[in-house]
Amino acid sequence: MYIDSHCHLDKLDLTPYDGDLSALLSQAEQCQVSKMLCVSVEMEQFQRMYSLIEPYSQVFASVGVHPLSADKGVVSVEELIAETTRERIVAIGETGLDYYYQQDTIELQQQSFRNHLIASSQSGLPTIVHTRDARQDTLDIIRQSGDPEVGGVLHCFTESWEMARDALDLNYMISISGIVTFRNAEELRNVVKQVPLDRLLIETDAPYLAPVPYRGKKNEPRYVVEVAQCVADIKGVRLEELAEITSENFFRLFSAAA
Ligand SMILES: [Zn+2]
Ligand SMILES: [Zn+2]
């Protein structure tokens, strides 16, 4: 069994499935992608997203606001906590810092990030962190406001080994997306080599970032198998073994997922 630890099912174009999410999910199931975590990016869209996934027990969800949406109003700790009582919520996020796309909202991104980390600590649900071109601030804020007992994940990781190592020390896991299959991702493959197997997750971030050989097409959870194959090759383990270990890691981190 494979688990897609990070996707956005509410953003997928379901036209090839006649608008039917259950058809997409059964296609994924046929590829042994049996479970997935659907990640929230905005509070305004959260209710719709949750209603979409609610009928499917194999789909878990998070609640949170993407750093690039933090300028629409910083979400409060209370607002986040209020949604964590829903049955399928297993994580807080995605939150974090993205200085690559937005420099003028840094203050708001940081406030929002802190609130998510506090909500994680209060709820006991781990944090899903998006980080781009903000290595030092991301680590500093996790150190200041994060709860090492609860931990989290740096998703769609593309940063340095030094950052990965510091995150591992803060009880974070490292999640690898289809970027690892790209020809120019040599540095990332070197990071994967060094991250211990029991701290790795795999994800698609669908509909974004389809792995080779689907690059440029719309991504789907079932393509997480390509990510798994690439990571298995780097780590020198069998595909089945990689699938099993990353699934165990998923349930260890997202312990509310059952
Ligand atoms: Zn992200
Ligand atoms: Zn995402």
Please describe the topology of this protein.
Blueprint: E1 2-7, H1 21-30, E2 33-38, H2 43-53, E3 59-63, H3 77-83, E4 89-98, H4 106-123, E5 127-132, H5 135-145, E6 152-154, H6 161-169, E7 172-176, H7 186-194, E8 200-202, H8 224-235, H9 239-253
Parallel strand pairs: 1-2, 2-3, 3-4, 4-5, 5-6, 6-7, 7-8
One zinc ion (ZN) is lined by residues 94, 130, 155-156.
Q: Report the strand count.
A: 8
Count of runs of 4 or more consecutive helical residues: 9
Could you estimate the helical fraction of the residues in percent?
25-40%
What distance lies between the first and last C-alpha atoms, to the nearest angstrom?
Answer: 14 Å
User: Which small-molecule species are bound to the chains here?
Assistant: zinc ion
CATH C-level class: Alpha Beta
Pick out the low-confidence regions: none
CATH topology: TIM Barrel
Describe the 3D structure.
- By secondary structure, the chain is an alpha/beta fold.
- It has one domain: TIM Barrel (Alpha-Beta Barrel), CATH 3.20.20.
- 40% of the residues lie in helices and 17% in strands.
- The chain contains 9 helices and 8 strands.
- The protein has an 8-stranded parallel beta sheet.
- β1, α1 (21-30) and β2 (33-38) form a beta-alpha-beta unit.
- α3 packs across α4 and α8 packs across α9 (239-253).
- The chain starts with a strand and ends in a 5-residue tail after the last helix.
- 48% of the residues are buried.
- The model has no long low-confidence stretch (mean pLDDT 96).
- One zinc ion binds at residues 6, 8, 39, 94, 205.
